[in-house]
Amino acid sequence: MPKLTFTLIGLLFLTLTSQAGTPINGLLERIDTNASRKFVIEYVKSDIDFFELDQKGKKVVIRGNNHVSIATGIHWYLKYYAGIHLTWNNMQAKLPDVLPAVTKKERHETTLKHRYYLNYCTHSYSMAFWDWERWQQEIDWMALHGINLPLTITGTASVWRNVLIRLGYSTDEVNNFVAGPAFQTWWLMNNLEAWGGPNTANWYEQQEKLQKEILKRMREFGIEPVLPGYSGMVPNNAKEKLGLEVSEPGLWCGYRHPAILQPTDQQFQHIADLYYEELTKLYGKANYYSMDPFHEGGSVAGVDLDTAGKAIHAAMKRANPNAVWVAQAWQRCPYEEMIANLPAGDLIVLDLYSESRPQWGDPSSTWYRENGFGAHDWLYCMLLNYGGNVGLHGKMTHVINEFYKARDSRFGQTLKGVGLTMEGIENNPVMYELLCELPWRKSLFTSDEWLKNYIRARYGKSDPQIEEAWELLRTSIYNCPPSSTQQGTHESIFCARPSLKAYQASSWSEMQDYYKPEDVIKVAGLMVEAAPHFKGNNNFEYDLVDIVRQAVAEKGRLVYSVVTSAYLAGEKELFKAASSRFLHLIELQDSLLGTRDEFRLGKWIGMARNMGKTDAEKDWLEWNARVQITTWGNRQAADAGGLRDYAHKEWNGLLKDFYYLRWKAYFDYLEAKLNGQEPENIDFYALEETWTQKQNPYLQEAEGDATSMAQTIYRKIFH
């Protein structure tokens, strides 16, 4: 064979090898084996982010200016041409042998540079026990949804361990500062110390390794990680141990805030430099660092806020002159005095709760900032979920309208993107899908037209009955009033600590009755009726279970009102019948949710235990997992601090063994009162704490047929 032929074959082999190794081809292969062979991927230089859908012969062309833009284009094509929706409950799909053709070139572009992802809280409420396999899936989700700026805090404890040891702290002293795996978020936000610890050496090593894998993959995609920077946090004993000048920020829900090192202290810059040195050693330099000093009520008494802002900014710039500070706008933070004199372009403010309490300059907001964030860049964000709670909820039309209102206002000049800042994920996919599309749609659109396309994309086909169901959801539970500051889902009564005046599960939800329960129950009926046409459709079955779950919770609230009325009227037989009915609903809900692993307690606990090497370590991790979703803290924090049930979940296993236990104990107490007895008051915390200390096993895998179970339970309750 001629030498030239060998050369050409070699070049072809190298080209194919190179293509096979690209992040995009790796992503496609994880979606479906050989999927990368079904697309033509083309990179085109551009100053703005864009993607194009096109056709060459029998192959679909995805064209874009970078990996994330192209991944976004792939997802857009799969949704709106192939009827394949990839999201948390469904990240793999069987692609057809011949992909549906793009008959007319379609182009989408955006001048909004940043698409931010994650709240500090998400890392604890959803991600605390993830392994690399689950993180890999999530990074794929990010790329497909256009995310290019995610908060990435895994492994930060190792940075702090190394810094404190260099400052003279022992390993035990470090562990008296660093919070446990399920509570890392609130430690890093300067809210508490140590709770959930002490952490094991294995856990530190594991998290450090995991963060390196996460960052490697993100950087391969061109995704810019936002790493935690230094804002002045030091252990509470730093004044005594190191002679530092600190402010005392007070209490957070019963826990002492870590101390804040005064920016005027000569050691501030030294400790900041140590922090960035250790951070860079482990994870490399970042172009974006997250700092939120004085978060959630941390006292600023005696702190020169202007000096503090400049000191934090200067330390970051020494670590990387090109770095940008990312700050969460929450309550009064970031204080105007702290950021007013920082250079424009060096700060991005996340308007964390844009859908309900915007701070970008909207005068209708209860958290109104007349001048927005001044000259600083900002992102339009949707919080939506608090505590990782399960439940349908949203402001679908309002989110759309407010985005375009902000973009077209005088504050739109500094609007640089959007952000998904939920406290917990793997819920409400429709709302997050909507927000992710906003940067790529030039003009205002209506929620009803968008939703019809979403349904077709999610389920792979249109169906009049399903369209009717979702239209009713859109105008009811997904139509929370614009003025409402309700913090997340309409919480299930099943998850509330029992009382005669039970309404919400968590202390802070501000929930209100803004929709008709019968509308949700009707939707569940429509989904049940349509179910035979969608047998085996993973997305449909997830939504079916979730919507029927919501309907059962609505029924529970209606039955609860009968229970309380019967008790107050002294009607013993009615009370007994209604309370038994209520408990049975909890059991039915538990059985329904057991058919999907997304709603199983066993999955959460299983992930936690899998991180441990020894039985003792596994038990400690399980305790972290159990406490976070129930009592959250110790007795003081749980009760007086208002943290109990903040992260409540309607999950199989938790309903049957925790919420049922509480309600049964309470109904027994009330029945005894009705019978003229004087039972002892129930110490709910003692009941709850006992459950958190157990290690009884829960299955991780789904049991039974989701469709059949949903049909059976719906008909049993509502027919």
- Rg calculated over all Cα atoms: 26 Å
Percent helix = 40-55%
Annotation, overall tally of beta strands: 17
Which topology of the largest domain does CATH recognise? TIM Barrel
Strand order within the widest beta sheet: 6-5-17-16-15-14-13-7
Please state the structural category. alpha/beta
CATH class of the largest domain: Alpha Beta
CATH homologous superfamily (4th level) name of the largest domain: Glycosidases
Uncertain regions: pLDDT < 50 for 5+ in a row? 1-19
Mean pLDDT: 95
Query: Could you give a short account of the major beta sheet?
Result: 8 strands, parallel
Task: Name the CATH architecture of the largest domain.
Answer: Alpha-Beta Barrel
Number of domains: 3
Shape: globular
Q: How large is the share of residues in beta strands?
A: 5-15%
Number of helices: 26
Structural commentary:
Helices cover 46% and strands 10% of the residues. Strand 13, helix 12 and strand 14 form a beta-alpha-beta unit. The protein is an alpha/beta fold. The longest helix is centred in the C-terminal third of the chain and has 32 residues. It has an eight-stranded parallel sheet with strand order 6-5-17-16-15-14-13-7, with helices on one face. The chain has a four-stranded mixed sheet with strand order 1-3-2-4. The N and C termini lie far apart (78 Å). The chain is globular and about 75 Å long. The N terminus is likely disordered. It has three domains: 86 residues, Chitobiase/beta-hexosaminidase domain 2-like (Chitobiase, domain 2), CATH 3.30.379.10; 342 residues, Alpha-Beta Barrel (TIM Barrel); 203 residues, Four Helix Bundle (Hemerythrin (Met), subunit A) (Up-down Bundle).
